[in-house]
Specification:
Blueprint: H1 3-29, H2 44-48, E1 54-62, H3 64-67, H4 78-85, E2 91-95, E3 99-100, E4 108-111, H5 117-131, E5 135-139, H6 142-146, H7 151-168, E6 173-177, H8 192-211, E7 215-219, H9 246-265
Parallel strand pairs: 1-2, 1-4, 1-5, 5-6, 6-7
Antiparallel strand pairs: 3-4
Length: 270
């Protein structure tokens, strides 16, 4: 091939290449863009759209039963209740309060041994302001009745306390458990009738509070076997005349847990 022919062939080849490039580009535009792999630092929750359960601030409020007197380690009902709620897919729980007792890491509460309903009412403003609970678990009134107090007056004070809690925390959930009906009293004086009258009055609070649109529920306390009635078939569930033992506290926890589950299902919290 002479030099002139070689130059001509080279020019022709360049022209063919120039035509081919746009054709390749046009073809590539028709192919879908490859998916970009997720960042290795992206959280699984963000990519799946799920969120961790909400942590609900729960204040156990009351007297010595709330503090856990009678249990082997002052865990009271709070220890078994924490275990029941642990791993719940809808909410997690954080006990709050100015006091701390029990073997668990989360052991705060607002239980004051010896306090009547009136003394609890006197302190509730500062306790609620400090802890800002989402849920309040109430177990109150036993010290009133054990000292011969009138059940109707104690119930009036309990109703006033509930109203005050809702004034301080309008969106809160309040779960009040009645007094254990089989409680004999610290001197075995048999306070079963005053307890029954008091519990009936507490139940009546529920209709009024719910009628006002508040998240309040009353839950019956379990019947627990007193030590003097215990035998091989019915082990004791009360440590003394006033307080449950570990077995009794587990039943108190079950009652609170059932009420919390219903409240959560109704959208009251979590």
């Amino acid at each position: 091939m002479n030099r002139r022919s070689a130059v001509f062939a080279g020019v022709a080849g360049l022209a063919g290449l120039a035509v081919a490039v746009p054709l390749l580009t046009a073809a590539s535009d028709q192919n879908p863009t490859p998916a970009v792999p997720p960042s290795p630092t992206a959280s699984p929750e963000a990519s799946s759209g799920t969120r961790p359960p909400r942590t609900v601030r729960v204040m156990p409020l009351g007297a010595s039963t709330t503090a856990g007197v009678g249990s082997s380690d002052f865990g009271g009902y709070r220890l078994p209740l924490g275990r029941l709620v642990a791993g719940h897919s809808g909410y997690a729980m954080d006990f709050v309060g100015s006091r701390a007792q029990g073997p668990m890491d989360d052991n705060e509460h607002e239980g004051h041994p010896g306090y009547t309903v009136g003394r609890i009412r006197a302190g509730v403003d500062r306790w609620i302001a400090a802890a800002k609970p989402d849920v309040v678990l109430l177990h109150i009134g036993l010290n009133n009745l054990n000292r011969g107090g009138d059940p109707d007056r104690a119930a009036d004070e309990a109703e006033d306390l509930v109203d005050r809690i809702f004034t301080l925390r309008p969106g809160a959930t309040v779960i009040m458990q009645g007094l254990v009906p089989s409680t004999p009293g610290s001197k075995d004086q048999d306070i079963s009738e005053p307890i029954a009258a008091y519990n009936r009055r507490l139940k009546q609070i529920e209709a009024r509070e719910q009628g006002a649109g508040r998240h309040f529920t009353f839950v019956k306390a379990p019947w627990l076997t007193p030590a003097e009635r215990a035998d091989a078939s019915m082990p004791a569930e009360l440590a003394d005349g006033l307080h449950p033992n570990d077995t009794g506290y587990a039943k108190v926890a079950d009652a609170f847990y059932g009420a919390m589950e219903r409240a959560h299902a109704d959208g009251w919290f979590g």
